[in-house]
Design goal:
Number of helices: 11
CATH class of the largest domain: Mainly Alpha
Distance between the termini: 33 Å
CATH superfamily of the largest domain: Butyryl-CoA Dehydrogenase, subunit A, domain 3
Oligomer: single chain
Strand content: 5-15%
Order of helices and strands: HHHHHEEEEEEEHHHHHH
Shape: globular
Length: 393
């Protein structure tokens, strides 16, 4: 085991920002391949970004949420698909840190290990001597083709008992990969289907999701580390909020890059930048992008403040993180929509980045956990004195 020198937040954000030109240059290639190119994965690895949520005793950085989110947002300025996949790797790597230490010793035997995963229990597990036999499939498994481990939820089917969810850690080599990722948004994320066919999962490699969602984790070595004090869903929500914030910023930046020399067709404006309408659009998109960052940052700051104080989370605080994530998604989409509308007919060409950004932010807003209406309703229920209608808090 090794202990790495931990870069500062400024260093990691600067490293991510340094990759933005490369990500923009390769964005079309990434979409065409429907997965992150190997050269990009290597660049992320060399920059240390994939170590950010690895435990320090394995050479990782255990970066706090504000740093994690800021890096994810920077990457989204370059390519939403890359940012999304990195966010999934970060979340799933953090989840791996919840397993017993002996399991972590195997997963992180290489500090460059990439872990992806799915929270929805769409496969089943049957108890057998020493563990479980898992069968079924998980869709939307982002980054699976470039990962070594998969942390996936399954539904335990005990004979004569009630089904209950488990979180499993399965080597990717034990799963079948189905290349079915043909999507309108986040095309380069490689969010394919993985399939388990009679896969044996040892008992220590499966966690009861009930205790996990109550923050009763199995790792002894990580028990006193700040980043492992947060709820799973709050950690995931604050992480992916950075993708939305980064895409909003990207839309404003890309619009302004195209602005010089563009006119408004069928008007006497030889320069679009001279039109008062354009001034209003740029201002509106800018403030909405900043609002997306504001809400994302509020989620990250709540996670970090609770972690650092080792404070117990209330149900309202858990729902608040999801509310902030939903608000970040709404504001990000609004910012992108303004820039897309202002970009004119020529922006529908695939080489113009705004159309890709627009499709990516739409995909975020449709995600089951990120969907703004779902998150607004959840928080509103609590404010009206009702119980939450989900265990994913």
């Amino acid at each position: 085991m090794e202990t790495a020198t931990v870069p500062t937040r400024a260093d990691l954000v600067s490293s991510a920002a340094g990759l933005v030109p490369l990500l923009r240059e390769r964005a079309a290639e990434t979409e065409s391949a429907r997965r992150i190119p190997a050269e990009t994965v290597q660049a992320l690895t060399d920059a240390g970004i994939l170590r950010m949520r690895v435990p320090r005793r394995y050479g990782g950085y255990e970066s706090d949420m504000r740093t994690t989110q800021a890096v994810v947002a920077e990457l989204a300025r370059g390519d939403g698909s890359v940012s999304w996949t990195v966010s999934v790797w970060m979340i799933s790597t953090w989840i791996a840190g919840l397993f017993p230490d002996s399991v972590q010793d195997e997963i992180f035997s290489d500090p460059g290990t990439r872990v992806c995963g799915i929270l929805s229990p769409t496969a089943t597990a049957v108890p057998v001597d020493g563990g479980y036999v898992v069968n079924g499939a998980w869709s939307f498994n982002s980054g699976a083709q470039d990962s070594q481990w998969n942390t996936n939820s399954v539904l335990l089917m005990p004979p004569g008992g009630q089904p209950s969810p488990l979180m499993t850690a399965i080597p990717m080599k034990d799963l079948e990969l189905v290349d079915d990722w043909y999507s309108s948004g986040l095309q380069g994320s490689g969010s394919i289907k993985t399939v388990a066919r009679d896969v044996f999962v040892p008992g220590d490699y499966a966690l009861d999701m009930g205790p996990v969602l109550r923050q009763e984790y199995s790792s002894v070595a990580n028990a006193d580390q700040p980043i492992y004090q947060a709820p799973l869903v709050s950690t995931a929500s604050a992480t992916v909020s950075g993708v939305a914030a980064g895409l909003a910023r990207a839309s404003v930046e890309e619009f302004r890059l195209r602005l010089p020399g563009r006119k408004i067709t069928y008007t006497d404006y030889a320069e679009q930048s001279n039109a008062p309408l354009t001034h209003l659009q740029v201002a509106e998109a800018t403030i909405k992008a900043e609002e997306a960052t504001y809400h994302a940052t509020r989620a990250a700051d709540l996670v970090d403040s609770k972690n650092e104080a080792f404070e117990t989370w209330t149900t309202e605080e858990r729902a608040r993180v999801r509310l902030e994530m939903g608000a970040a998604c709404v504001r990000a989409k609004e910012a992108v929509d303004v820039c897309s509308t202002a970009s004119g007919g020529s922006s529908i060409y695939r080489h113009v980045p705004i159309q890709r950004i627009s499709r990516d932010v739409q995909a975020l807003n449709l995600h089951g956990v990120m969907h703004p209406d779902t998150n607004y309703e959840l928080y509103g229920r609590l404010m009206c004195g009702l119980d939450p209608n989900t265990h994913y808090l």
